Amino acid sequence: MNFGFECYSCILRQGYEAATMVTDNDDVIREILSEICSELAKLDPTISPPEFIAIVHQIIKKKTGVEDPYAKIKAKNMKTSLQIYPKVEKIVSNSDDPLLASLVMSAVGNSIDTAVGLEVDIVKNIEKSLQTGLNYSDYGLLKEELDQADNVLIIADNTGEAVFDRLLLKELNKLDMKITYVVRSKAVLNDITIRDAKKLNIDSMAEVIESGTFTPGVILSQCNDNFKNIYYNSDLIISKGQGNLEGLSNAGENIFFLLKAKCKFIEFILKNGIEKGDLVLIKSDKISEK
Prior knowledge:
CATH class of the largest domain: Alpha Beta
Domain Damage-control phosphatase ARMT1-like metal-binding: 6-266
Protein name: Damage-control phosphatase ARMT1-like metal-binding domain-containing protein
Structural class: alpha/beta
CATH architecture of the largest domain: 3-Layer(aba) Sandwich
Shape: globular
Distance between the termini: 7 Å
Largest sheet: 7 strands, mixed
Strand content: 5-15%
CATH topology of the largest domain: Rossmann fold
Number of helices: 12
InterPro entries: ARMT-1-like_metal-bd_sf, ARMT1-like_metal-bd, PH1575-like
Order of helices and strands: HHHHHHEHEHEHEHEHEHE
């Protein structure tokens, strides 16, 4: 997905928020924002948002020396998610369709996203989503393809939602298939790394690999050979979150995108009556690329 006009203000907000997390020095913050603006001024419009966000975080790390500005927020979100996990697990287990319920909860977890704002009421989001479910769903298509698949690749997103991904992994393991769970190779935003995945024992439920990319969304040209080999040989791919959608929306593979639509630009890309705030499970061939 190419960079949209709507992305400019979002990028600046993210840069400001990340900078103020790690320094209260006004001069340093001003330098960071000035350099971000300079990079935006010479932006290649064919670049995807995750690629530019990676540039923003390189600037912040260079100016402050802090490798993971979101470390405290990640820890807080993981703690909150783990506290409510037993309740959510019980709800999923007792539902009429635990696989569908696990997908809903995994999508709800996607609302825990520092890319669209730091204040997220996780409990409130879950309670609301239990009532509404998925606003747009290609679940029937996903079920058909799962029945035929020997393996599935899950492309993970943020650390807080990864807690709820365990519910989805639990259900997929009942289908007797090989599951690969891919994470970021380096800390960016609040996205999950292999260290985070091991803390959550996800490596006991799936093979956990790194993508090789440092962007908050999979950019195939930047991924390592191991990931690309698994990606291109997967029977089915479930891609979590908006950043991965932005990186893979025109990839052409058999992908189901599971996310919360978080901005008007994504609403335009997804079409199909999808609106900002909706929980979405959509197959890649339904997406209108811009």
